[in-house]
Design goal:
alpha+beta, Nuclear Transport Factor 2, Chain: A, 2 domains, four-stranded antiparallel beta sheet, 48% helix, 26% strand, elongated, VirB8/TrbF family protein, transmembrane helix, plasmid, VirB8
């Protein structure tokens, strides 16, 4: 084949209207098609990642987030040690003493600080069974002696002396209340004794666990001064 014949074939190939149209189409739209394909790949990958994330979040959400803790208390119910455990025996007498000790301290203490006093009141109600005789008794107690008003004149410091089991569900508690004026000058020092009936309701919700993790509730109580 001569040089001129090859050159003629090349010129015909270059001037082929079908090839020229294909080349022009690719040059004009090929880039758009390529970018569209890339976005399709990105979209598919995003959907896959989203599906995996949803399943993973669902799995994490189904796991138990509550960590049980045990509170070790001494014979008067004061906190001795706190630690994470797997099994807690809430029938342990010291566990009930801890709850009763906390209730007495929260109920009878007067500190003169609004935030602290409000916390004491909320803490006291945590150990009272709603709608019980103890609940009505506590309401009446706060109505007769408003701790916020009392805190503007004096302070009351509480110390529990003994907590003794009387029957299967009734405990005798003896405590001392030292009352001072705002200058911390002692006004009175009185010993009280009361009888408290309790029941155990193990918490089943996160809110109940936060409020009363040991599930100890006072259902009825009465008290008087020791002369």
């Amino acid at each position: 084949m001569s040089f001129f014949k090859k050159k003629e074939q090349i010129n015909q190939s270059i001037n082929n209207p079908y090839l020229n149209a294909k080349t022009e189409w690719l040059e004009r739209y090929g880039d758009y098609i390529s970018r569209a394909r890339n976005w399709q790949i990105v979209a598919i990958l995003s959907i896959i990642v989203t599906i995996i994330s949803v399943f993973y979040i669902g799995y994490i959400g189904s796991q138990n987030k509550l960590i049980p803790y045990v509170i070790e208390v001494d014979k008067l119910g004061n906190t001795a040690n706190v630690g994470m455990v797997r099994n807690v025996d809430i029938k342990n007498p010291n566990v009930i003493k801890y709850s009763l000790n906390t209730f007495i301290y929260s109920w009878r203490s007067i500190w003169g600080n609004l935030e602290i006093q409000r916390k004491f009141i909320f803490d006291a109600y945590k150990y009272i069974e709603p709608g019980s005789k103890a609940f009505l008794f506590l309401n009446d107690s706060y109505e007769k002696s408003n701790p916020f008003e009392q805190g503007t004149k004096q302070n009351v410091r509480v110390k529990v002396d003994s907590i003794v089991l009387q029957t299967n569900d009734t405990w005798q508690i003896q405590w001392r209340e030292t009352t001072t004026n705002l200058a911390e000058e002692q006004i009175s020092d009185i010993v009280y004794r009361g009888f408290f009936k309790v029941k155990q309701i193990p918490p089943t919700t996160e809110e109940e666990i936060i409020k009363n993790p040991l599930g100890i509730f006072i259902t009825d109580f009465n008290f008087a001064k020791i002369l």
